[in-house]
Amino acid sequence: MLEDALARLFAPWVRALDLRVLDARAGEVTLALPITSVHVQSAGVLCAQTMMAAADVAMTLAVMTRLGGFKPMTTVQLQTSFLRPISGASGAARVVARVLRMGRSLGFGEVQIISADDELAAHATTTKKPITPVSTAPVTTSTRSNGRSSVRSF
């Protein structure tokens, strides 16, 4: 269920993170985050944007394990503290997400990003909210003659 979700539910750039499920149980997911040159910033460390995206994905999957499957949801809050850098040469990190509480309208969780040296590199808290999808139609962006973008659903 979770590998399938990684392959089809997320935007293409998120899928390009190449996250892999290492472990899963009700309310908790551990992912492998491969570190490649596209995830490393100019100082030679894993960039914050990659870590936050991985944390958000991990929490979505953890909520899925708690709910027994995918339900459309959005991130209401994602607060991340970066505790130490992860070397771009380290190869991988682990992302551990835990659901702390699931209510009817909000789910609360925490995420730890752990270096290959088993050091806590980042800690995040997050809040998820179930939503009703606006549309399941593909969305395209086009440029109008006045140079402004418009978004259309088909």
Could you describe the 3D structure shown?
- With 154 residues, the protein is an alpha+beta fold.
- It has one domain (2-153): Thiol Ester Dehydrase, Chain A.
- Helix content is 20%, strand content 41%.
- The chain has 3 helices and 8 strands, in the order ααββαββββββ.
- The protein has helices spanning 2-8, 12-15, 48-67, and strands spanning 20-25, 28-34, 73-82, 92-102, 107-114, 120-130, 139-143, 149-153.
- Strands 1-2-4-5-6-3 form a 6-stranded antiparallel sheet, with helices on one face. Strands 7-8 form a two-stranded antiparallel ribbon.
- Strand 4 and strand 5 (107-114) form a beta hairpin.
- The model has no long low-confidence stretch (mean pLDDT 90).
What keywords describe this structure?
alpha+beta; single chain; 154 residues; two-stranded antiparallel ribbon; Thiol Ester Dehydrase, Chain A; 3 helices; 20% helix; 8 strands; globular
Question: How would you briefly describe this protein structure?
Answer:
The chain contains three helices and eight strands. With 154 residues, it is α+β, with helices and mostly antiparallel strands. Strand 5 (107-114) and strand 6 form a beta hairpin.
Number of strands: 8
The shape, in one word, is: globular
Q: Can you tell me the CATH architecture?
A: Roll
Computed CA radius of gyration, to the nearest angstrom:
17 Å
- The CATH topology corresponds to Thiol Ester Dehydrase, Chain A
Mean pLDDT: 90
Number of helices: 3
Q: Which residues sit in consecutive blocks of at least 5 with pLDDT less than 50?
A: none
Main sheet makeup = 6 strands, antiparallel
Number of domains: 1
Strand order of the largest sheet: 1-2-4-5-6-3
CATH superfamily: Hotdog Thioesterase
Strand/helix succession:
HHEEHEEEEEE
What structural class is derived from the secondary structure elements? alpha+beta
Task: Report the sheet-strand fraction.
Answer: 35-45%
CATH level 1 class label: Alpha Beta
Percent in helix:
10-25%
Distance between the amino and carboxyl termini: 28 Å
